[in-house]
Design goal:
The complex is a heterotrimer of chains A (about 300), B (about 375) and C (about 90). Chain A has eleven helices and ten strands. With about 300 residues, chain A is an alpha/beta fold. Chain A has a single domain, classed as Rossmann fold (3-Layer(aba) Sandwich). In chain A, helix 1 crosses helix 7 and helix 3 packs parallel to helix 5. The relative contact order of chain A is 0.12. Chain B folds into two domains: about 240 residues, 3-Layer(aba) Sandwich (Rossmann fold), CATH 3.40.50.970; about 130 residues, Rossmann fold, CATH 3.40.50.920. Chain B contains 13 helices and 16 strands. In chain B, helix 7 links the parallel strand 6 and strand 7. The relative contact order of chain B is 0.11. Chain C has about 90 residues and is of the alpha+beta class. Chain C is built from two helices and four strands. In chain C, the strands form two sheets. Chain C has a two-stranded antiparallel ribbon with strand order 1-4. Chain C has a two-stranded antiparallel sheet with strand order 2-3. In chain C, about 45% of the residues are buried. The chains are: A alpha/beta (about 300), B alpha/beta (about 375), C alpha+beta (about 90). Chains A and B meet through strand 1, strand 2, helix 3 and helix 5 of A and helix 3, helix 5 and strand 9 of B. Strand 2 of chain A pairs parallel with strand 9 of chain B, so a sheet runs across the interface. Bound molecules: thiamine diphosphate, iron/sulfur cluster (SF4) (3 copies) and magnesium ion. One iron/sulfur cluster (SF4) binds next to helix 2 and helix 8 of chain A. The site of one iron/sulfur cluster has 12 residues of chain A, from helix 2 and helix 8.
Chain lengths: ~300, ~375, ~90
């Protein structure tokens, strides 16, 4: 299983991500999957900032950053240009959840509708981390962020995660997938599949952020894994709009995931918020139902 | 050979001959005819370009930025609200030094909503780092595109440019225009040779962020490139004259200024009316002339001061207003002439498609000569 | 050194930033226990875990931030975090 290519770190060390940064790992894995023959169009956000203070770039492949919300449009132009020149580089967008699910939707929708041969990777750390942990359309229900803070009359973010994969599948994207850094090989394989599928493809990869969520830096992967084991994150693939595969799990109660993170601490202290926890459990149950991820225990009848 | 055609069509025909490889544009009145014409040319295989039908102006310019960075000559066109929507990308494209050429069919900015002409849109982006050229007629509008590509793509410049021509007044007007052949354009404008590009063979990171240690120096370099663009424009304009017989080497162009006491200063199509008005005033014995500002960015302050050095009174016609301050051109002309004892007055005129006749120009000259200025000209006080 | 037009840069320059200085804890690898699965190298966000000639793994302490992810994922418990002596 050692898929480490020695001396071939296309995302070099020396970048300024916090220790234990999930998105930094996602960037490394992404480049493992793409190899050198790629052009990356990045959005403003943590990943852009930690990897490219002039002149210290960490990117070993051609990379361009323009704005927070236009990487899909920039990529559209790059793809058109490469096509015109008869060049072979793959075009890959990378953006955070804020860039992808909120402010960049216009450009992404346009690019997917036009059918450019691009792959869009959203690294989902479930808030605007670069500007100080504000909520985004991907922030989970109940999470406390600096703009959806828990307080006397608030229990944190009031909305559920926007279903971006389904939105882009509805655009006719031939391949849409979710992934998690807890399963690096799976993510790498999905990226390989996406870049080799003609047309616009989308992958949303769950990338826990120790700083923004409030857990120890060493726990980044275990947190990502718990999200899957509780059903709050589902790894699945959609081909031509149909879910074809979803990772099955023996589900754990959501509490096991929530209790480990500062952003959900108000659900347990000073008083336990059974109602909110039950609502979050219901979200996990609905996910399990929709994607059929539950591994049935032996002997259980149904 | 002169052909009678619509201004937008003349622009599209010239753009086609400049061989853009990627075009991304979004329709907005009065720019539409240009991008429709180009789409038809692509559909007819007359123009071998990728035409990206973007969902917004914001994406249009973003796509141009990406395509330019990947190594293609690109083109876009817009106006007014469309340009306003591009605001963020405009600053970005200039900062990233992409030689994008974009036509602006000048139009007012809302509110109130107006589709008619003034120059508020491009003027509002004067700080963005884009070169700005203003055409007096359709021949010049067409010709300036060739010059713009040549100047922008010069490796000493590497800046984007607006080629501005007045919406409707020029864009929708039929005038005789001489169209050079493809071979002639190819002889003038070489194939695009990117200074640097996104390329897996030689990776580069584009658009990194700058800490306070570097930011000022990057901005300084853009500013320096702006000033170098003057020289590049003079050279490209002269070469154009040598090849096509129409010389554009002047950044500002005087009309009957030599012995003038009063000078009008203006940009764009209003100069045509102003020239006729000057002729009439001259016939009546008034020593009046006109200075047409062809290049607004970089601002040719010394050239303006030099061209106006003989006049005692200057009347600037501003088809824009920096609300709460005054007309943008007037403000900059005043700065260019500071220290002289010339009287400089600014007139906000022809906003939102208000027609300007020769007698209006004469009236402005009268006001200036009486020492009245820095005002809206022709306000309909009866509706206030 | 002259600025590169458009705030662009060729690769490699990030290596000038030795992030090892950030470390509070440092990972200590025990090759004897290592099963050579390569998981530590796969998941290090810095990409600073290298394979040795023997096929075991070691961190590049010039860049290791001491995050502890490798310790967490090591199936053989062959990595332990120790307080950095400075
Ligand atoms: C137009 C615009 N609005 C706001 C910002 C400020 N801004 C920069 S990054 C960012 C949040 C990024 O969030 P996300 O995309 O989730 O990436 P993350 O930082 O979490 O990795 C914001 C709000 C901006 N750069 N541009
Ligand atoms: S705040 Fe989160 S996403 Fe940003 S660098 Fe730190 S760990 Fe990574
Ligand atoms: S502690 Fe973190 S940074 Fe250091 S080697 Fe382990 S995973 Fe990499
Ligand atoms: S994770 Fe542990 S067992 Fe696997 S290679 Fe690394 S040190 Fe060895
Ligand atoms: Mg985020």
């Amino acid at each position: 299983m050692a898929e480490v290519e020695q001396g071939c770190e296309l995302l070099s060390a020396g970048h300024r991500a916090c220790g234990g940064c999930g998105p930094a790992l996602a960037a490394r894995l992404l480049l493992k999957a793409t190899g050198k023959n790629v052009i990356i169009a990045a959005a403003t956000g943590c990943m852009e900032v930690f990897s490219t203070p002039y002149p210290e770039t960490a990117w070993g492949v051609p990379w361009i950053h323009s704005l927070f919300e236009n990487n899909a449009a920039v990529a559209s132009g790059i793809e058109a240009s490469l096509k015109k020149q008869g060049r072979s580089e793959k075009v890959v967008c990378i953006g955070g959840d804020g860039s992808t699910l909120d402010i960049g939707v216009l450009c992404i929708s346009g690019a997917f509708e036009r059918g450019h041969d691009i792959t869009y990777i959203c690294y989902d750390n479930e808030a605007y981390m670069n500007t100080g942990i504000q909520r985004s359309g991907a922030t989970p229900y109940g999470a406390s962020t600096t703009t959806s803070p828990a307080g006397k009359c608030s229990l944190g973010n009031q909305h559920q995660k926007k279903d971006m994969p389904r939105i882009l599948a509805a655009h006719g994207a031939p391949y849409v997938a979710t992934a998690s850094i807890a399963y690096p090989n799976d993510f790498v394989q999905k990226v390989e599949r996406a870049i080799n599928t003609p047309g616009p493809c989308y992958i949303q990869v769950h990338t826990p952020c120790c700083t923004g969520w409030g857990f120890e830096s060493g726990e980044t992967l275990s947190m990502a894994k718990l999200a899957i084991e509780t059903g709050l994150w589902v790894n699945y693939e959609m081909v031509d709009g149909e879910v074809v595969k979803a990772k099955k799990v023996m589900r754990k109660p959501v509490e096991e995931y929530l209790a480990k993170q500062k952003r959900f601490r108000h659900l347990f202290k000073p008083t336990r918020q059974d109602g909110v926890i039950a609502n979050i459990q219901a979200i996990a149950d609905a996910n399990a139902e929709r994607f059929g991820i539950d591994i049935k225990r032996k002997g259980s009848s149904e | 050979m002169l052909e009678f055609m619509e201004g937008s069509h003349a622009v599209a025909e010239i753009v086609k001959r400049c061989r853009p490889q990627v075009i991304a544009a979004y329709p907005i009145t009065p720019q539409t005819h240009i991008v429709e014409d180009l789409a038809q040319m692509v559909a007819n295989c007359e123009l071998d370009a990728e035409y990206i039908t973007v969902e917004s102006e914001f994406s249009a310019l973003s796509a141009c930025l990406g395509a330019s960075a990947a190594g293609s000559r690109v083109y876009s066109a817009t106006t007014s609200q469309g340009l306003a929507l591009m605001f963020e990308v405009c600053f970005n494209a200039a900062g990233m030094r992409q030689p994008i050429v974009m036509t602006i069919a000048n139009r007012s900015l809302g509110a109130p909503l107006s589709i008619w002409n003034d120059q508020q849109d491009s003027i509002s982006l004067r700080d963005s780092g884009w070169l700005q050229f203003y055409a007096e007629d359709n021949q010049e509008a067409a010709d300036l595109h060739m010059i713009a590509y040549k100047v922008c793509e010069d490796h000493d410049i590497l800046l984007p440019a607006f080629v501005c021509f007045d919406g409707f007044i020029l864009s929708h007007t039929y005038e005789p225009v001489a169209l050079p052949t493809q071979e002639e354009v190819d002889a003038y404008l070489p194939a695009f040779n990117p200074y640097q590009r996104l390329d897996a063979e030689a990776p580069l990171s584009f658009g990194m962020y700058a800490t306070p240690e570097y930011y000022t120096e990057f901005r300084y370099e853009i500013d320096q490139a702006q000033y170098r663009a003057k020289e590049a424009f003079v050279k490209a304009g002269r070469e154009f004259g040598e090849q096509f017989g129409r010389d554009y080497s002047a950044l500002v162009e005087g009309y009957r200024l030599d012995d003038a006491d009063t000078a009008l200063v203006a940009m764009g199509s209003i100069c045509g009316t102003a020239k006729d008005a000057v002729d009439e005033m001259r016939d009546a014995g008034k020593k009046v002339g006109l200075l047409n500002i062809r290049m607004f960015r970089p601002f040719p302050a010394p050239e303006i001061a030099d061209a106006l050095k003989g006049v005692s009174t200057v009347a600037v016609l501003d088809k824009n207003i920096s609300l709460g301050s005054g007309g943008a051109v007037g403000t900059e002309v005043k700065a260019a002439l500071s220290g002289s004892n010339q009287a400089v007055y600014d007139y906000i005129i022809a906003l939102g498609g208000r027609d300007v006749r020769k007698r209006d120009i004469a009236a402005v000259v009268d006001l200036a000569e009486k020492g009245k200025g820095d005002m809206f000209y022709g306000l309909r006080t009866e509706v206030l | 050194m002259a600025l590169r037009v458009g705030c662009a840069s060729p690769p490699g320059r990030a290596l000038e930033n030795k992030t090892g200085a950030w470390r509070v804890f440092k990972p200590v690898f025990e090759p004897e226990k290592c099963s050579k699965c390569g998981m530590c190298a796969m998941v290090c966000p810095e990409g600073c875990v290298r394979e040795t000639e023997e096929g075991t793994f070691e961190p590049d302490l010039d860049y290791c931030k001491g995050c502890g992810i490798c310790e967490e994922v090591c199936p053989k418990k062959s990595i332990r975090m120790e307080k950095e002596e400075k």
